[in-house]
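Obj.: predict assembly geometry.
Materials: sequence records (below).
Method: joint structure prediction, all chains together.
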Amino acid sequence: MTLPIAVLVSGRGSNLQAILDACASAELDARVAIVVSNHAGVPALQRAALAGVPSAVFTVRAYADRDAAHTAMAATIAGIGAELVVLAGFDHILAPVFFVRLRGVPVINLHPALLPLFGGRGMHGDKVHQAVLSSGATESGCTVHRVHPETVDLGEVVVQRRVPVLPGDDAATLAARVLDEEHIAIVEAIRRFVPAEAVTRV
Ligand code: GAR
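Observations (raw C-alpha cells):
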C-alpha cells in the first residue's frame, strides 16, 4: 500500500528532493501528500511545486503563537490523511499539541550527526558539523530517529549512516559528505514505515 506522507521543511529541500525522486521512481512505495514549511518562499516549496505536490506555509508570525501555528499545521496534515510525518531540514521544535492532534501518526526527523552525539536544542546544520570538527571525532554521519513531544534528538534510531572525518575537512566539506548519506538514509527510513504487502491466499 502506498504510504501517504507529509514532509516538513524549512529551506533548501535537498532531502525532500531525494524523497520525491524515490517516490517518482517507485524505489519507494510512498507518496508525498503535502509539503509543509515554517518559512515562506524557500527553495523546498519550489521543489514541491515542480513535482506537483501541494504545499502549505505556517509561520508562527501568522498565528497567535507556536501552539496555534502547530495546531493548524497538524490539522492540515491530518486532513490530508498523512500516515507518516517526516522532518527533513525542519528547523523548529514541534509543540506538544502537534502530537496530540496527530496521535498515532509516527514522526521522524533527520539529523546530520551520529546521535546521541552532537544533538539537542540549537544543533542545526553547520553548527553540528563545527561541533564534530571541534571535538576531534574521526567519524560522523547522519541519523533518522523517531520524534516524541518535549524531547530533542532523543527518539529511537530508525537508520544511521556513517562517514569518515578527513584531514583538512571544514564544516562545508563535512556537510557535503554527510548530505550524500542523508539522501539515502531518509529514503531508507521512510521505507521502514511502508506496510508490507498483504499476502493473498487462494
Ligand atoms: C540537513 O542536513 C538536515 O540533516 C539538517 O538540515 C539540513 C537540511 O537540508 N537538519 C538538522 O540540522 C536538524 N537538526 P535540506 O533542506 O537540503 O534537506
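Conclusions so far: Residues 11-15, 88-89, 110-112, 123-125, 128, 179, 182 surround glycinamide ribonucleotide (CB under 6 Å).
To do: check interface contacts against the pulldown list.
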